[in-house]
Amino acid sequence: MIVTPNYHFDGQCKEALRLYEQAFQGKITVLIPYRDASPNDISMEDLTEEEKDYVYHAEMRIGNQRFMFSDDRAAVPKGRNLSMVITFDDPSEVRDAYHTLLDGGTAIHPLCETTYSSCFASVIDRYGMRWELMTENPI
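-> structure tokens emitted (139 positions)
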């Protein structure tokens, strides 16, 4: 199991990445704009031209730690702009954790397959903590 911090922005993710590169000598290892996301993940018809350039998924190494970043299309409420990504080895572990956290919680993204995960879900637990649960596909 791997735990990775994931930061969510309202359209300023690219600017934030440049800041973190400079401040922490971070190295961007993945940068996928919405326009390059799989059509199975999101419909391009639902995006404005500006949103197509938003960051769908990015990763940066700061020291020995991997961080994830993305732009959300909807406003990100304060306190919801950071989540912890738990990467499991098996989809059944993702499903079990998701259903456990969903008890008294709220689904942000129900269980699905994405460009980077064979099994992904995002949930806010009953205590208000945001979790993203996934298996990892090589990008």
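The radius of gyration is 15 Å.
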